[in-house]
Amino acid sequence: MTTEALRTSPLDAAHRALGAKLTEFGGWDMPLSYPAGTIAEHHACRSGAVVFDVSHLGTVRVEGPEALGRLQAAFTNDLARIAPGRAQYTHLLDPDDASVVDDIIVWWVDDGRFDVMPNASNTAGVRDALGVGEDADVTTTRAILAVQGPEARSRLAAVLPDAADVPRFHIGSARFGGTDVVVAGTGYTGEDGVELAVPSAAAPELWDALLAAGLEPAGLGARDTLRLEAGLPLHGHELGAGITPLQSGLGWVVRWDKGDFRGRDALTVEKERGVARRLRGIATEGRRPPRAGQAVLVGGAPVGEVTSGNFSPVLGHGIALAFVPPDVAEGTKVALELRGGDHLAGTVVATPFVKKERRPQSGAAFAK
Fold first, then answer.
1. CA-CA distance, 298 to 275, in Å (whole number)?
2. 317 and 293 together in one domain
3. What is the DSSP-derived secondary structure letter of residue 83?
4. Share of the chain above pLDDT 70, in %
5. Residue 367 pLDDT exceeds 50
6. 80, burial (CB in 10 Å: exposed 0-12, middle 13-18, buried 19+)
7. Residue 230 C-alpha from the chain's centroid
């Protein structure tokens, strides 16, 4: 029996030289953390600025006169609401039950080019759903660097001044030496920042320049705790098989007035019937982290299940996302069932767990 080799980022050697702890994610060998550790990287993003290597994300390039119509027919959101030079968060649904096959950022780079950014393990499925060939998958031709934090733009300006000026959910460009870099005002941390698509050959030099400008390297461990504090969903946890946009509280991603799209009929049935469960935030007592899969109890009876949970470095206690019945409102006291019969006390709360004065508008923080 053979095991398929993990794919690696163009920055793999740089991560190893920094002493990164690597982990498998979506078929890629990616940095989980660096020697400073996940909590230090988390705080660096909340108070300063960090750079993540997120090259495991896919890029499916859709071009030509039929590109816009192809994307409109596949995805739930409405690209007619934006224009070239903008980005949009959207969903690809299963046509049978309206499950979220993937949540996606579309970079509308120019009149004839869309860079569709799926999650790592879903790239081939998204490409097939769009009806484009294997040559549309340009993932291996570039690296994606996410520069995030309240000081992200000021530190980035020393390396790529034009990139630092790209507004949220806009697309721009910058030059690094003789190389063109595509810039998107997106991220997945709840902080300000941009993402940089740079040709693979130039990625190590740009990475080194960003670190020299004072950006600290951060791994996928911190990226997960940051997105959880921001209340952002992760595919395979809050989105995926059996989970619709309406259940996850992401109905704003569905533009019912745009016409037909894949999965619309199945989602209409749920909309008319009403959802049987909704995604809620839970704040738990103490430093013990809640974990995915734990049962949520109300009055001693199980009513739902945790989808993501961890310790919040900013708040100093546990936080979780969970699916529960729609009538379980904010302020409800709950318990999470632990192994051995123990329980972790918590309260249903609004998300985001960590509120920022300049937090992006709904959806503006999505880009995984």
1. 19
2. yes
3. -
4. 96
5. no
6. exposed
7. 11
Could you tell me which of 82, 125, 119, 143 has the C-alpha nearest to residue 364? 82
Pairing of strands 301-311, 295-298: antiparallel
CA 306 – CA 312 distance, rounded (Å): 15
Please report which confidence band the pLDDT of residue 329 belongs to, taking 50, 70 and 90 as the band edges: very high
Report DSSP state, residue 141: G
Q: Are residues 214 and 327 in the same domain?
A: no
Q: If we measure between CA atoms, which residue out of 201, 4, 236, 281 comes closest to residue 99?
A: 236
Total structural domains within the chain: 3
Is residue 193 predicted with pLDDT exceeding 80? yes
pLDDT at position 357: 57
pLDDT band at 245 (very low <50, low <70, confident <90, very high): very high
The pLDDT value recorded for residue 3 is 56
258 assigned to some structural domain: no
Q: pLDDT tier at 4 (50, 70, 90 boundaries)?
A: confident
Q: How many residues does the chain have?
A: 368
pLDDT of residue 360: 38
Q: Are 73 and 255 in contact (CB under 8 A)?
A: no
Say what the pTM is. 0.95
Instruction: Tell me how far apart the alpha carbons of residues 174 and 139 are, in angstroms, rounded to a whole number.
Output: 20
Tokens 């920094």 identify what position? 18
The span from the CA of 258 to the CA of 118, in Å, is 22
Range of the domain at 28: 7-54+139-229
DSSP letter string, 225-279: HHHHHTT---BTTTBBTTB-TTTTT-GGG--GGG---TTHHHHHHHHHH--S-EE
